[in-house]
Specification:
Blueprint lengths: L2 H22 L7 H15 L13 H14 L3 H9 L2 H4 L4 H8 L1 H15 L5 H13 L5 H16 L6 H21 L3 H15 L1 H13 L1 H21 L4 E7 L2 H11 L10 E7 L6 H15 L1 E2 L5 E2 L12 E6 L5 E8 H9 L1 H8 L8 H15 L4 H12 L3 E5 L5 E5 L4 H8 L1 H5 L1 E6 L2 E3 L11 E5 L16 H32 L6 H10 L5 H10 L6 H18 L5 H12 L6 E3 L8 E3 L11 E5 L5 E5 L5 H7 L4 E6 L7 E10 L4 H11 L4 E8 L4 E10 L2 H12 L4 E7 L3
Parallel strand pairs: 2-6, 12-16, 13-15
Antiparallel strand pairs: 1-2, 3-5, 4-5, 5-6, 7-8, 9-10, 9-11, 14-15, 14-16, 17-19, 17-20, 18-19
Helix pairs in contact: 1-3, 2-4, 3-4, 3-9, 4-7, 6-7, 7-8, 7-9, 8-19, 9-10, 9-11, 10-11, 11-12, 12-14, 13-15, 16-17, 18-22, 20-22, 22-24, 23-24
Bound molecules: manganese (II) ion.
Amino acid sequence: MDTIQLEEENKEIIRKYRKLLRHAKPFLKDDDAKLIRKAFNLSMEAHEGMRRKSGEPYIFHPVAVAQICVEEIGLGTTSIVSALLHDVVEDTDYEVEDIQREFGKKVAQIIDGLTKISGVGSNADSGQAENFRKMLLTLSHDVRVILVKLADRLHNMRTLDSMPRHKQLKIASETIFLYAPLAHRLGLYAIKSEMEDLHLKYTHEEVYQSIIDNIQVTKEFRDRFIRRFTRPLQQDLSLHNFKFNIKGRVKSIHSIWEKMEKQDIPVEEVFDLFAIRIIVDVPLAQEKAVCWQVYSIVTDYYKPNPDRLRDWVSTPKANGYESLHTTVMSRTGKWVEVQIRTKRMDDIAEKGYAAHWKYKDSTTRKKSGLETWIAEVRELLENTESNAAEFVDEFKANLYQDEVFVFTPKGDLKTLQNGSTTLDFAFDIHTEVGLKCLGAKVNQKLVPLNYVLQNGDQIEILTSTKQKPSEDWLRFVVTSKARSGIKHGLKDETRKIAEDGKEIVLRKLKQLKIEHKTSTFTELTKFFGLTQVTDFLYRVGKGIIEPKEIKKFKDASIEKKLVPKHKNWTDAKQVSKLITKETGRADSILFIGEDLDLVDYKFASCCSPIPGDDVFGFVTIGEGIKIHRTTCPNSAELLSKHGHRVLKAKWESEKKESFEAGLEIIGTDRLGLINDVTRIISNEHKVNMKSITVDTDTGIFEGKIFLCIKDKAHLAQLATKLENVEGVVKVTRIKED
Ligand code: MN
């Protein structure tokens, strides 16, 4: 490259930089200009000699990104500085610490966020989801990270031409997958549309071109039509002394393409290529009235389609969009969309988030939809434990949402995702309300948790302290707030139960005199065929694994030590002695499931005994003890020829008929509650109620019931049944002393 070219380039850089400053100027304060200059100089120096794929000096890119931030998003100094520096840490020797020293913490944080976004898994598909997630995580720090990232992405899309084909496709599809929806959700309509159009350009080149051509060819005709259509409106609006601006706007190429796809028609047959936009300049207080006044003027000339009225003035979209849309019949018999809005609304519609903040101070509105959404996203991000791919899916579902408008009992308006249910609404109020939600009164009528909300519903949530979240709930919520709330609630439940389980296990270990080492829980978990310690503790807490089964664990560890010796048994007496020694019983009967765990035993494959069968143990040579049924075809021979090797054996369940246990029942007192409780107990098989005492002070029911019951599993079953009795809140086992 020769000197003249280099000089030209340098001039071009300075020209671009000056343009940036010119656009930023109106809102620069104090030392802002100096700071921008400093950032520009640092970026120049850092990227010195670097070139983009197109051959341009690299510095073109950060300056262009900064330009988009100012001109198209309306961001201020911090973002301009961040945009100028956005690739410095990633691509040059500068570190975040250097940025912090020179430009302070805020800029350093934003740059750090931007660097992290591009740093992760940029080539692996699976990394992509994680990458997106990282990006969204930066939302919890500063929304400007996303805004600068969107500007960065937009410029990359604009300069995609010089990229190789596979990169074009990759970048374009990422853009349509996440960045355009994100821009949409942040209210950046212009950027969203351009991203979508550029995606089309690189993925459906021919269609893209044909649409452009068609727009070009029909321009003259369209302009004439728009002039005629707007003429009477212009006159009337002037007559009313409005400050206004009317324009005909061609819709985005992408949206035209969507129509073609949806209706399966060529571009020539898409008749509503454009919309008429009327922008009025009025003080905030008169906005609504004026918009409707304009609507009234428009419909004086053209008949509106009653099905196509969209009032986002009274109720803005969740992303902050405000506008009044109607579709009217023109004199030539064509439907024309007319959008009526104020200058402020138009600014917000075009520039979204940043413009929204610009107007914030001047409005008296409460928290806007956009702010609420960002707060929600933050909450979701902070609470989420789902994997990256799942998370991005959930987040994306949240981006493209239609809305349903409902009211609280006090008449406050809430905007929820379309398809939301009672439960979504409850979680929208507060996580605690969601977790305790029983149902709701909608327009005074009782509805269940899964009732799908309709526009205009007035909803009063009914809660109960008894209520607990369940897995089922996940099936009928649509908002991510509810989803993560339920998942969290379930996890809390599980944790509480696991804590109870831990208590039980520790007590049992103490009782069994098993030393509790750090590895004990892990070993126990493995012993019960599980992988997670909490899973094991949860099962104990839930009663799925009974404490007595822990003894098997002890026995198994003893068995491990004894097995080799036992393999050498030759006589039943040796085993009897061991049993007497270990259990202190002199009956020398082996109880399968208990004592026999001490020794190496197997069920004989010739007769496969099952619990309840009459059985005996047979001491084999080298293979420990085998359990046979007395009716086994081999039993006659074994019993007659090898009597000295035969051992008396019984199933453990035959050992004791039943044991005594107590249940404590707490609930809200109601007529017939005792009756219901006792009926359930007496209907239970093999349960005898020994005593019952009931206390019903202050509307609270407290009962103690002592029973004779077969085993603990049965007791747990019974407790669950009792818990389901209406009014019963809690059933707990009374601890044995
Ligand atoms: Mn960049």
